[in-house]
Write a structure and sequence with these properties.
Strand content: 5-15%
Mean pLDDT: 93
Number of domains: 2
CATH topology of the largest domain: TIM Barrel
Number of strands: 8
CATH class of the largest domain: Alpha Beta
Low-confidence stretches: none
Shape: elongated
Number of helices: 10
Largest sheet: 6 strands, parallel
CATH architecture of the largest domain: Alpha-Beta Barrel
Helix content: 40-55%
Strand order of the largest sheet: 3-8-7-6-5-4
Radius of gyration: 22 Å
Length: 231
């Protein structure tokens, strides 16, 4: 809510819920005061921000609750599929909803994707080369789509393995083999409708672009009330 006070000098928060609080239809989310022309100038901006971020937090929280109903330790993580220029806010909304923001940018960790492997040609050699060249502080994660590639990535020293667009039934044998030895992340078209199936596999992380690119904005409205305060 602090963003409202920063939009214009003179805005003052009078009351409001805390980030992460549950609200229902008809609740007042925030009450603030300011000069009339300035309030109306930022009306749509405020509503757009709060509606968008509230929708992301709500979608994230739903995914967390569903997944942890069958896998209490699993994390729901975001992706970099965010609105251009708005990533820091959307990542914050994921955290408010109980999720993990995942990477903010390419420098946060090394993620070897299918295109990297296709260009380099040798999965094991690529992993070893990267492990030799990057700082020990950087995790190296490898995207795979088969059991065989998951095993190769593990043997080559990957810190985490991203099981991309795999069916839950195909993930289970990998979890049975590698659980506790390496971080296992499932990703690819995971939504509230199927997140329980993926959580049941026993993976450590479930990342979902859905919570940012498909979350439904919460319907908010701003009602203005004139006061007699002339100060």
């Amino acid at each position: 809510m602090a963003v409202i006070e920063e939009l214009y000098i003179g805005f003052k928060i009078m009351a409001g819920v805390d980030d992460g609080d549950t609200v229902k239809r008809g609740d007042t989310v925030i009450e603030f005061a300011g000069e009339a022309d300035r309030v109306l100038t930022v009306e749509r901006l405020i509503l757009n921000i709060l509606s968008r971020l509230s929708g992301i937090a709500t979608a994230t929280n739903l995914m967390v609750r569903l997944a942890r109903s069958v896998n209490p330790t699993v994390r729901i993580a975001g992706t970099r599929k965010t609105t251009p220029g708005f990533r820091v806010f959307e990542k914050y909304a994921i955290e408010v909803g109980g999720g993990d923001p995942h990477r903010f940018n390419l420098a946060d960790a090394v993620l070897i994707k299918d295109n990297h492997i296709a260009l380099y040609g040798d999965l094991e050699k690529l992993i070893r080369t990267i492990k030799e060249r990057v700082s020990f502080t950087k995790k190296v994660e490898v995207e795979v789509s088969t059991y065989e590639d998951a095993m190769r990535a593990y043997r080559a020293g990957a810190d985490a393995i991203l099981l991309d667009n795999m069916r839950p039934s195909d993930i289970v044998p990998i979890v049975n083999e590698l659980k506790g030895k390496v971080i296992l992340e499932a990703s690819g078209r995971i939504t509230p409708e199927n997140v329980i199936d993926y959580a049941r596999t026993g993976v450590d992380i479930i990342s979902s672009g859905y919570i940012t690119h498909s979350a439904r904005a919460i319907d908010l409205t701003m009602d203005v009330r004139k006061t007699n305060d002339t100060k």
